[in-house]
Amino acid sequence: MKKVLFCSVIAAGLTAFITGAQAHFQLIYTPETMLEKGGKLTLKMPFTHPAESGHVMDMGIPEEFYSIRKGKKTDLMDKLKIIEWTSNENTGKAYEAEVKLRGLGDNVFVLKPTPFYEASEDIYIQQITKSYVNVGDLPTDWSEVQGLKAEIRPLTKPYNVIAGGTFTGVVLSEGKPVPFAEIEIEYINFPADIENNKFADVGMISSPSHAIRSDASGTFTFGVPKAGFWGIAALGAGPDTEHEGKELSQDAVIWIQARDVD
Ligand SMILES: [Cu+2]
Asked: What domain of life does the native source organism fall in (predicted)?
């Protein structure tokens, strides 16, 4: 609380600095990732700083957006709609998509945004992002590799992580493990208000950001302290290092939902 207030007070003068100091996260958000039945679902996709309800970056038209279920890919580019997302700092251009989930199993959503120019760091950032929605408690695809340039392969079911337990994954670059990858982790600390396309005004926890590394085999484990949504980003994990003559950070992002045990 105190930290959040402090940030917003100095944000006016030091926006560029603050923006650079926190982690960027591409969201693919829906409030519940384990559903009894399929049907319609709206995914919210702002590119922002969810731990601090910080800057919302204006997204360009994504390069790819699709889902995978039982190994079958469904293109969802025509479902993308431009929205505006509001944080405690600003309002920025984002996307949403209404999708229809058919049948049982895991739906893996993959968003490959167009590289974003981060002026404060003079680099481009491209966060290739995965999120998961299960229908009917039938596990099908969550442990598979999706063949992305930069990817975190989950070794723990990403939609049913135990709060107080751990999440383990492997950082991959074109399918090959990335040793000692730099990993940033952030909590969606300001609940996402999907009716109004904004974050809530007040944060929930005092330690919403963490930083770790993968080990020599590319594997990492994160102790998940609280129920809710955690984003995990492996920075610069992908093979592409340049875009339009500037440095590119091609990151792998995965979203997990942690749950309390009754
Ligand atoms: Cu940013």
From this structure: Bacteria
CA 127 to centroid of ligand 1, rounded, Å: 12
- Contact between 240 and 199 under an 8 Å Cβ cutoff? The reply is no
- Cα 57 to averaged position of ligand 1 atoms, centre (Å): 6
Distance 226 CA to ligand 1 centre (A): 24
Number of domains in the chain: 1
Among residues 127, 124, 126, the alpha carbon closest in space to that of 244 is found at 124
Residue 12 has pLDDT above 50, yes or no: no
Burial class, 78, CB count within 10 angstroms (exposed 0-12 / middle 13-18 / buried 19+): exposed
Domain that holds residue 110: 2-259
Q: What is the mean pLDDT of residues 100-123?
A: 97
The pLDDT > 90 percentage for the chain reads: 91
Three-state secondary-structure class, residue 75: strand
CA of 117 to the centre of ligand 1 (A): 9
- Alpha-helical (H) ranges within the chain are 2-21
The alpha carbon of 137 and the centre of ligand 1 are apart by a number of angstroms equal to: 35
- How far apart are alpha carbons 181 and 175 in whole angstroms? 14
Cα 37 from Cα 160, distance rounded (Å) = 16
Separation CA 204–CA 214 (nearest Å): 28
Rounded to whole angstroms, the Cα distance separating 151 from 47 reads 18
